[in-house]
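Problem 3 from the worked examples.
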Amino acid sequence: MTASEEGRTVERRPRTTADVIALCREGDVKMVDLKFTDLPGTLQHFSIPARALDETIFSEGIGFDGSSIRGFQHIQESDMLLVPDPASAFLDPIYRVPTLSIICDVRDPVTRERYWRDPRYIAQKAERYLAETGIADTAYFGPEVEFFIFDAVRFDQNEHEGYYAIDSEEGAWNAGRPGKNLGHRPRYKEGYFPAPPVDSLQDIRSEAVLKMLQAGIEVEVHHHEVATAGQGEIDMRYQTLTRMADQVMLYKYILKNVAREHDKTVTFMPKPIFGDNGSGMHVHVSLWKNGENLFYDPEGYAQMSLLGLYFIGGLLAHARALCALIAPTTNSYRRLVPGFEAPVNLVYSQRNRSAAARIPVYSRSPAAKRVEFRPPDPSCNPYLAFAAILMAGLDGILNEMDPGDPLDTDVYELPPEVAAAIRTVPGSLEEALRALEEDHDFLLRGGVFTHDLLQTWTEYKRKREIDPIRLRPHPYEFYLYYDV
C-alpha cells in the first residue's frame, strides 16, 4: 500500500434504507444482488427484482439455505436469513442488467441474532472489542493484494492422472514459441515495473481500477509485480477493518470478471508458478484514537511508538497460530518457504523485506506510520484474517509484549548458527492448524472468535483440504520414485 500523508481516510456517506430504495428508483435499477461470504472466504450471491426491495427486507431479512454454504449449517438446521447492510450498497459495475449490489449480514431465523459463523460478524466484533479496550477507536487496514492474470488454465485429478497446466502470453517460457512471436516478456523474477509492451496487462488493470472506483473502492496505484506471466497488484487506500474486508471481496470479484471479459482468467493462489515469486497480501495496520495515529512517535525506532512495538510483539508472538487464518491453504506453504525471500522469519525491521513485520519509512508523516505484516496471502478470508491480526496485536499491547531488537540485516546472509535461532512461520497448513489449537485464547477475548468457529475451521481445513492432498500422489513423485 502506498503511504498516504493526508491523514485519515474519508468514509463514504452512509446510506439509510430509504437512500438505498431511492437509489434503485433513480438509477433505473432492475435487479438487487445480495452478496455475502462463506467461511472459507468465497463470495456468494443471489438476486431479487428491484421492485421486491422494500424496508421489510432490511429489518426482517430474506431466507436462504445455510446447509448449502461451506462452513455454515447442517441440513437439519438449514434455514438462515440474509439482512442487507444499506451502507454497503453500490451500483454494480459488472452486470449488463442495471443492478444494485448490497453486502449482507447473516442472522439466525429463530433467535434473530447474528450468526456466529458469519465471517463479517467476526470482523465487526473485532472492531467492537477494540473500542471496548479503550486503547483505540479505529483500526485501519491496507492490504497489498497480489494476483496472476493468465490466458488459460487446465487441471484435473482423478484415479489415474493428475496435472495442471497454465499459460500466459507474458510467460517467459513462451520466448521460444514457434510461429508469430513478438517477444517482450518479463523474465523470471524481473516483472517489477516494466513499461509496455513488456507489461501487456496495463489496460485490463486500469479497467478493473475504474470499476472498483465505481463500486466505492478508493484505489491508490496499480502495477505489474515481480513474477513473469502476468503477476500484478492493485493497492487500495486504507480503510476500517470490516469495510476493507468488504473491499477485498469486491476487489477479487471485479478483477476476475474484468479479466473474463478479456478472455483471461485471474487467480489469487499464493503459489501457482514454480520457480518464480508467489502472490502475497502484505497487510498494513495502524491504530487511531480521537484522530491521532497511536503508532507514531518521532523519537521511536523508525518513528514507531512503544504501543506500536507492543502491537508488533503480539503479531510475532502469535504468528504461528495466525498462519492458520492468514495463510490458510496448503498452497500457502509453497510460498512461505525459508531461503526464497519469503517473509518467514518472525522478526521485525524498518526496511527489511525478509522480516515478517516491517515498518515502512517512505514518509515521516504521523499519518503514514504503520506496521506491514507480510506473511498473509490472498487465499485468506479477509474478515477472519484482519480480525485475527487485530486481536494478536491488541494482546501484545495489553500484555506489553516486547518484540525484541529489530533485525535490519538480510536474514539470508546471517551465519547458520544465528539464523537457526530465529523463529519462523509454520512449514505446512497442518503445522499452522496445530499452532492455532495450542494458541487461540487471544482470539476468544471479547467473544470475537468462538470455540465453535475455530473448531469448524480446523475440521474443514483437515477434511476438505489437507486430507485430499495427503491421499493423492503428486505428479513430481513419479519423476522421483517411478524407478525405485
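Problem 4, a separate protein:
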Amino acid sequence: MTDLVVIFRTHSDIEAQIVRGLLEAHGVMSVMSSDVPHSIFPLSVDGLGDVRIAVHPGEAEEAVRIIAGHRTELKNGKVVRLRDEFEALQQAIGYRFRDRGLLEHAMTHTSRANEDASGGVADNESMEFLGDALLGFVIADMLFRDFPAFDEGEKSKTKAALVSTATLARQAERLRLGDHLLLGRGEEKTGGRRKQALLADGYEALLAAIYLDGGVEHARAVIVREFGGLIDDVRRGGVSKQDYKSTLQELLQSRELPLPEYRLVGTLGPDHRKRFEIEVVVRGERLASATGPSKKEAELEAARMALRELSHSDA
C-alpha cells in the first residue's frame, strides 16, 4: 500500500475538516488523523493537538495548490487561516480569543458533532451549562448592586426575563451569532441558524468560552456590555421583555395619547428563515420599527425601541 503524504497540519480539528471538505470538493480524497484522544474539550493549541491531513502522493501537489488558492497572504508575510469565520463575531463581542479552539467548540452544535465519523468533534452542551451558570451569577450580581430597592420577587422576575431563551436569542441575533454556528446538514436544512433554542444555547456557550479563555473578569466585562441596554430598560420601568407592549401602552395613556398600532411592513428572507418587519404607529406617526423571527417577537422589539425613542425625546 502506498504511503500517504501529509500536506496540511493545524491545531483545529474543525479547520482540518474544512480543508478536507475543500479537497473533496475538488475530487481529492484525503485522510485526517491526530495523536490526541477524544475529549469533551477542543483540541489543544500547544502543539499536542496537531491534526494532519494526508493524500495519495500522486495528488499531493494538486492538494497543496488547492489549499494555497484559498489562503490569504498579508504584506508582512503572515498567512491567514483558510476560513476565519469567527472574525466578525469576535469584533461584535469586543473580545479576541487567545485559544480560537474554544470559540469553535462553543459554536459547534450537537448535530455537527454527531455527523463526524471520527468522534473527534465535541459539541457545545457542556459549555452551555457553564455559560448558563456564569450568566446567572453575573446578572444576579448586577441586579443586587443596581437595584437595592427591589425585593427578592422583583429581582427573581427580572433575572428570569433577562436570561430567558427569548432574550438570549435576541442577544444572539444582534451579534449575528447564527451565521457562525457549526451545524449538521439536517439542522442546516431546517433553519437551525434562526431557531431560538439554538441561538440561546450558542450564546451561553460563547460566554463560557470567553470565561475559559480569559477568566471571569473578561467574561463579566462582556456580559456587562451585552446587557447594559437591557438593564437600562429595567431602570425605565420594565422588568420583562414581555411587558414592553403593556409598558408602552401605559406610557401613551399617561400622555393622553391613543393606543399604539402594530403594522406589518413586510417580510425578509426565504420561507425557512423568514423575518417579519413590524412598525409601531401612534396617531399615524411611526415611533419605531423592528424585525424578528415571528410577528410577536418583532412587535415586542418594536415596542422596546419605541420606549427608548420616547425616553430619549424626554431627555
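Solution to problem 4. Strands lie at 5-10, 30-34, 51-55, 72-73, 79-80, 261-268, 275-282, 285-292. The longest strand covers residues 261-268.
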